[in-house]
Amino acid sequence: MIEEKLHEVEANIATSMKNRSEDCQDDVLLIAVTKNHDIHAMRQAIDAGVTDIGENRIQEAKEKYETLDRKVTWHLIGHLQTNKAKQAVKIFDLIHSVDSLHLAKALNKAAAGINKVQKVLVQVNLAHEDSKSGIYEDGLEELLHQVDEMDNLQLMGLMCIAPNYENVEDCRPLFANMKKIYDHIKEISWQKANIKYLSMGMTHDYTIAVEEGANVVRVGTGIFGPRQY
Ligand SMILES: *Cc1c(COP(=O)(O)O)cnc(C)c1O
Prior knowledge:
Strand content: 15-25%
Number of helices: 9
CATH class of the domain at 38-197: Alpha Beta
Number of strands: 8
Order of helices and strands: HEHEHEHEHEHEHEHEH
CATH topology of the domain at 38-197: TIM Barrel
Distance between the termini: 21 Å
Structural class: alpha/beta
Bound molecules: pyridoxal-5'-phosphate
């Protein structure tokens, strides 16, 4: 079941990649979002080919991290509170949700404490939704430069969550705008940032995100079915 759905998602991504404009040749990294799914589901997905998993809560991720007997790359995709920074740097290979100088400083300090250079994405709130985290576009470049100057962080790109529009096609201009911003920041000469990830697209909108240039998508429901809360 999980295996079949995973292959369906992979096939959809491949189709969407063919529909991209010619200036975007990036491969697409699929993150299987395992929040609220148990370790058995995780093992099934990994055995079917998943290499990257996404979690949004520290406590849940920590329990799974300590239990899972498979090697995978761990992504933190949810909002992070500064008081959890220490735990986050111990678990995650890539943190997608840096959205303030305050949080960046906490992560930098926590990473220094364990001699790690923590890879991060900055989360952008393009639609200015109060209900979502992420920095507004007008403060973005300043934050990116501040992160680039931190010894124990390495900036790898941008992440966004599209609004829940009634008509999913309404996400398209927003994704296209994110791609423009991403292309722009790729051209900046950073000290040590390595801008290569544009993380956008979830189950209901990942095909559109890929068409518009996403190279990382985060899919939960599409692989594991609905979450039980
Ligand atoms: C839960 C979550 C996802 C996956 O959502 P689905 O709709 O189940 O694919 C992706 N990104 C973030 C930030 C999430 O919190």
